[in-house]
């Protein structure tokens, strides 16, 4: 009994310490990152800029500033990772210095910091890309192509013609971005199958999950991408047909001065805007994601978060 009484304080102390180290006192382990979906996407933000809404679309508010995002869309389909556009790449400073016309720099610019897609994917341990698809070949979409040597780059035949005659303008492809003979350009072969009001389409995996459609006007060979994710929700990535989803409410084009500089064919661009609006009317749950719309993209979240 005497030995028991002598040990009792130590037993109580050990019990107390055990309680502190147990569930009541332990720090919760940080949650493990969610596994990528079977089919889903993540918006990879490479840079951003605030601009006045009135410069984004006709009828916008000039007293209101909105976020313009320079992004790429990382798509996962089964075991493959695809990039839709590349955002601002590792060499954007040199590219901009070489090919952006001096008179256009006050209107078309980017701000530091820039975080290229390649650096973000490598840090996250994402497997190599199987392919890159460009919505079109403008500077803020094709900048990162040279960061992925050997990766096939898909563009329409019409856009390939633009790429083959690059010029240092805001409305054309830049030699510093698309001029390397090592880039593996692959023409997109649309099939004569209408899809959501578009006269041709290409079902990339033949299962309705990733469907490309031609979107004429902004450039001769612009491309849009319909994506159906694991939840069944559908997203429509429309490149630069519009810079803001808010413009689709009334079918508003870009601000007049902007569309004069960047839209190859304003009439055809307007026709494509109406096609997007028709698709939205057919499926009110369809989420339209313009390439630079900060309001839409901020709500969806950014890499490494997945939309599934």
Question: What do these coordinates show?
Answer:
The chain is an alpha/beta fold and 308 residues long. The protein has one domain: 4-Layer Sandwich (Metallo-beta-lactamase, Chain A), CATH 3.60.15.10. Strands 1-2-3-4-5-6 form a 6-stranded mixed beta sheet. Strands 7-8-9-10-11 form a 5-stranded mixed beta sheet, with no helix packed on it. The N terminus is likely disordered.
Task: State the helix count.
Answer: 9
CATH superfamily: Ribonuclease Z/Hydroxyacylglutathione hydrolase-like
First-to-last CA distance? 65 Å
* Structural class determined from secondary elements: alpha/beta
* CATH architect. name: 4-Layer Sandwich
* Assembly status: single chain
- How big is the Rg? 24 Å
Query: What does the largest sheet look like?
Result: 6 strands, mixed
Hey, roughly how much beta strand do the residues contain?
15-25%
Roughly what is the average pLDDT, rounded to an integer? 91
């Amino acid at each position: 009994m005497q030995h028991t009484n002598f040990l009792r304080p130590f037993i109580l102390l050990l019990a107390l310490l055990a309680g502190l180290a147990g569930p009541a006192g332990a720090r919760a382990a940080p949650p493990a990152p969610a596994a990528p979906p079977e089919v889903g996407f993540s918006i990879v933000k490479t840079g951003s800029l605030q601009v006045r809404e009135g410069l984004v679309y006709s009828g916008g508010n000039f007293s209101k500033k909105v976020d313009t995002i320079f992004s790429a869309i990382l798509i996962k389909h089964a075991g493959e990772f695809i990039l839709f556009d590349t955002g601002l790449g590792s060499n954007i400073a040199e590219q901009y210095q070489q090919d952006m016309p001096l008179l256009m720099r006050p209107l078309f610019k980017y701000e530091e910091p820039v975080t290229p897609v390649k650096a973000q994917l490598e840090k996250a341990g994402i497997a190599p890309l199987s392919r890159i698809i460009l919505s079109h070949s403008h500077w803020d979409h094709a900048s990162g192509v040279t960061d992925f040597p050997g990766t096939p780059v898909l563009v329409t035949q019409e856009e390939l013609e633009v790429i083959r005659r690059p010029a240092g303008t805001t409305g054309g492809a830049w030699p510093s971005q698309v001029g390397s003979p090592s880039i593996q350009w692959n023409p997109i072969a649309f099939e004569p199958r209408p899809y959501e009001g578009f006269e041709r389409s290409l079902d990339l995996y033949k299962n309705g999950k990733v469907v490309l459609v031609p979107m004429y006007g902004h450039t001769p060979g612009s491309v849009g991408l319909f994506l159906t994710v694991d939840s069944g929700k559908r997203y429509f990535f429309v490149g630069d047909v519009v810079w803001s989803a808010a413009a689709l409410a009334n079918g508003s084009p870009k601000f007049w001065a902007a569309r004069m500089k960047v839209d190859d064919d304003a009439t055809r661009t307007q026709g494509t805007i109406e096609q997007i609006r028709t698709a939205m009317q057919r499926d009110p749950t369809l989420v339209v994601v313009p390439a630079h719309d900060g309001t839409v993209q901020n709500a969806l979240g950014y890499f490494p978060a997945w939309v599934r």
